[in-house]
């Protein structure tokens, strides 16, 4: 049996508070423009690190161990959340998203996880395209211009999210929105090089 799986960091807290006023205004603006949009519920906010897609269920223990091993080498970090934009463009939008800081720590973690998965035959290939971290907030049924709707909130800051764990999720269709079920959570336990030296001396 296959499951639709992906690795991601949860971004519900604190965005459910810091982004909520803007989220409500965007929905009102969309209604006034009669745009047909499916809004992602705040409890589903996440930033995908690696998407696996349809994966054999019996691979889950090995995937969980790979995630754990990657997290053992990574220390917690913060990511700034700001700006609102759209794929493929503001004039022909299918998806609305929040910008996520493309911090070196996040990129290094993704590379480390992908390499571990590839080495253990859990990933068929590594996507070499530039990694653009983002947080999807809505999807349009038909491509439309959203420039006027999102322009008041361009370059607006929504604070930071503290990343202390990475989650292996299952995506399950349930009505209008998918439900994201956490299967395994791994804590970022990495230390600075200086900390490792101190620990070794002790």
Describe the structure.
The protein is α+β, with helices and mostly antiparallel strands and 202 residues long. It has helices at 12-18, 20-32, 60-71, 104-119, 147-150, 193-201; strands at 2-10, 37-39, 46-56, 77-87, 93-100, 134-144, 157-163, 165-174, 177-187. The chain has a five-stranded antiparallel sheet with strand order 2-6-5-4-7, covered by helices on one side. The chain has a four-stranded antiparallel sheet with strand order 3-1-8-9.
Q: Give the DSSP E fraction (strand runs of 2 or more residues).
A: 35-45%
| Extended strand count | 9
Arithmetic mean of pLDDT = 89
> How do the strands line up in the largest sheet?
2-6-5-4-7
Radius of gyration over alpha carbons?
18 Å
Termini distance?
48 Å
Percent of residues in helices comes to: 25-40%
**Global structural class:** alpha+beta
- The number of helical elements comes to 6
* Oligomeric status: single chain
**Unreliable runs:** 193-202
Largest sheet: 5 strands, antiparallel
SSE run:
EHHEEHEEHEHEEEH
Shape: globular
């Amino acid at each position: 049996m296959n499951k639709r799986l992906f690795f991601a960091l949860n971004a519900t807290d604190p965005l459910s508070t810091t982004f909520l006023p803007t989220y409500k205004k965007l929905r009102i603006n969309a209604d006034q423009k009669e745009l047909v949009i499916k809004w992602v519920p705040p409890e589903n906010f996440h930033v995908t690190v690696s998407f696996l897609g349809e994966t054999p269920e019996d691979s889950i223990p090995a995937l969980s161990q790979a995630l754990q091993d990657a997290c053992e080498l990574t220390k917690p970090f913060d990511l700034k959340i700001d700006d609102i934009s759209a794929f493929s463009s503001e004039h022909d939008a299918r998806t609305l998203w929040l910008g996520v800081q493309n911090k070196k720590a996040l990129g290094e973690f993704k590379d480390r996880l992908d390499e571990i998965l590839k080495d253990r035959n859990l990933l068929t290939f590594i996507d070499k395209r530039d990694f653009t971290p983002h947080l999807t907030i809505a999807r349009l049924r038909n491509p439309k211009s959203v420039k006027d709707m999102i322009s008041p909130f361009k370059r607006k800051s929504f604070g930071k999210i503290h990343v202390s764990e990475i989650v292996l999720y299952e995506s399950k269709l349930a009505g209008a929105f998918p439900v994201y079920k956490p299967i395994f959570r791994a804590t970022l336990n990495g230390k600075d090089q200086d900390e490792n030296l101190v620990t070794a001396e002790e």
